[in-house]
Amino acid sequence: MGCTSCSSGTDGQPKGCKNNGTCGSDGCNKLTVFDWLSNMSLPGDQKPFIGIEVRFKNGRKHFYKNTENLSLSIGDIVATEAMSGHDIGIVTLTGELVKVQMKKKNQVVNVEDLPKIYRKATQKDIDVWQTVRAKETEIQKRSREIAIHLGLKMKISDIEYQGDGSKTTFYYTAEERVDFRQLIRDFASAFSTRVEMKQVGFRQEAARLGGIGSCGRELCCSTWLTDFRSVKTSAARYQQLSLNPQKLAGQCGKLKCCLNYELDTYLDALKDIPKSDIKLITEKGNAICQKSDIFKRLLWYGYEKQGMNWHKISVDKANEIIELNKKGLKITSLEDYAVEEKISETKIFENVVGQDSLTRFDKPKSKNTKKRNSRNRNKTRNKKSYQNKKSKKNV
């Protein structure tokens, strides 16, 4: 989905469009929606939908109405209505798919209640916007110093200027309630703008900042995941994962959202698998479940007094034994129900060429070969000399 400016340069380094977050094709941004209706025309009696989706910094998106009937397309920079003044954003979606996105995000169905788009951004609007965007990094450092000086237990994770530079939004995370009335006064006097404080959760903070996960891909919350469902440690137990908080926690410090992806599949597979705390009662003793393979439907049981000897039993056989135990019956032993392992016959290498073996160079040569050769030579010489002497005597 990236534009042609994302190719490599002459030295092999990424070329980059250097648009500072204003990608013209909207292919390098987070949470991009592909407009698969762009090449299709509307029926003759239907008017185009006036709702427009506009993206701001770090994937923040809002919906607006195009009351001026501007010819807008994906990637256009527009000036939108704000509480005071105007804001600058990039159009990410137009047409009928905006209805789908509004329903998905539980937005108002009545388009007339939406704020409106004023105009396409002029060059002056873009210059002011880029100027205030360039100051955000320095102001973020300064705001953190002010918060530390006041002794507030909060973390200012991100700052966003309004497009006209009249308002600054400070995004922060905190575990407890924070009294930041004095902080707002200090910010207003230090930065000479109207200040708005917004508290976000740890997952929302990771989604805004982005990053690379332990899987090597971009974070799901910053690329495509829009709803944050609660993740419990039971999801890791069902999937037989080690309860190591360093491996199960994401960059936000909470449990990884991907633990919920395969949870339904594991729950369906675990429906008829007996629980691990159920013991199998036999005449040789009680057996405890030591290990289980959910998708192969195999269980390994071992006697209480013989914990090292495991017996592999299928799920159906284990359920059958449990039903017999419920009726007060005991089986003879686990060996009668164990699954027999089929040992695959190893094929010996066959010499197709019919010449030497492949290991002919692996055998070291014996040290006595020279001695043997010299002995054979001496024998042949002695034999010839003996035959010559015998022939001379006969003569």
State the main characteristics.
four-stranded antiparallel beta sheet, GMP Synthetase, Chain A, domain 3, alpha+beta, elongated, 395 residues, 4 domains, five-stranded antiparallel beta sheet
Task: Write a brief caption for the model.
With 395 residues, the chain is of the alpha+beta class. The chain has helices at residues 97-104, 123-134, 136-149, 181-191, 202-209, 220-223, 233-238, 245-248, 263-269, 315-326, 369-394, and strands at residues 51-55, 61-65, 77-81, 86-94, 117-120, 155-161, 167-173, 194-199, 280-282, 285-293, 298-303, 310-314. It is 28% helix and 18% strand.
Characterise the protein shown here.
Helix 3 crosses helix 4 (181-191). The protein is α+β, with helices and mostly antiparallel strands and 395 residues long. Strands 2-1-4-3-5 form a five-stranded antiparallel β-sheet. A four-stranded antiparallel β-sheet has the order 9-10-11-12, covered by helices on one side. The radius of gyration is 38 Å and the shape is elongated. It has helices at 97-104, 123-134, 136-149, 181-191, 202-209, 220-223, 233-238, 245-248, 263-269, 315-326, 369-394, and strands spanning 51-55, 61-65, 77-81, 86-94, 117-120, 155-161, 167-173, 194-199, 280-282, 285-293, 298-303, 310-314. It folds into four domains: 4-121, no CATH class; 130-200, GMP Synthetase, Chain A, domain 3, CATH 3.30.300.20; 206-269, no CATH class; 280-336, no CATH class. The longest helix is centred in the C-terminal third of the chain and has 26 residues, at 369-394.
